[in-house]
Amino acid sequence: xxxxxxxxxxxxxxxxxxxxxxxxxxxxxxxxxxxxxxxxxxxxxxxxxxxxxxxxxxxxxxxxxxxxxxxxxxxxxxxxxxxxxxxxxxxxxxxxxxxxxxxxxxxxxxxxxxxxxxxxxxxxxxxxxxxxxxxxxxxxxxxxxxxxxxxxxxxxxxxxxxxxxxxxxxxxxxxxxxxxxxxxxxxxxxxxxxxxxxxxxxxxxxxxxxxxxxxxxxxxxxxxxxxxxxxxx
Length: 233
Hints:
There is one protein chain. By secondary structure, this protein is mainly alpha-helical. The protein is built from eleven helices and no strands. The radius of gyration is 21 Å and the shape is flat. Mean pLDDT is 84; it is low at 227-233.
């Protein structure tokens, strides 16, 4: 498939009704992906947009096309987060703020959470965002290490590992302990320091942790303890 065209260029030349349908589809997709993640059924997107499935697929032949259109502005903003962090005079503040901002964006939006741990290989917008971010992350790491505030064995790829870990914690704890990701990020950042110090945010309670584990099991088709039957149906 050819590289995806920009959302603005995709709208050029469309009739008023076609343009209206396209924008309704994009808005509906943005809402559903935010609520349910990027693997949400596209039939639900069409239903919320008030169009037929055929209309959706004519405008967006692939899921990737729709994802890029729905998140074009967010992809651009994500690409700028690391560059903005470089403006911090303190190297540790720049690095830690960058990680915290990305992880916070993931907690607020399932679609963003999915986007930050995958690649859209045919998207010019996503590729440009990724390239900008990779360059800036490398500079953030270099500056912090030269200042002696980041351990020498940290590499830019570690940031992606942080995001993957954060995505997992967010997914499991979303309903029971929605702020648990903050503690994970605090642990990760403290582990990056040559000398560990500083208070941590509050941990989730035992009850919140138990509820999160039960909810995750149920989401995978397993019955929660105390209900009729055990294991898989």
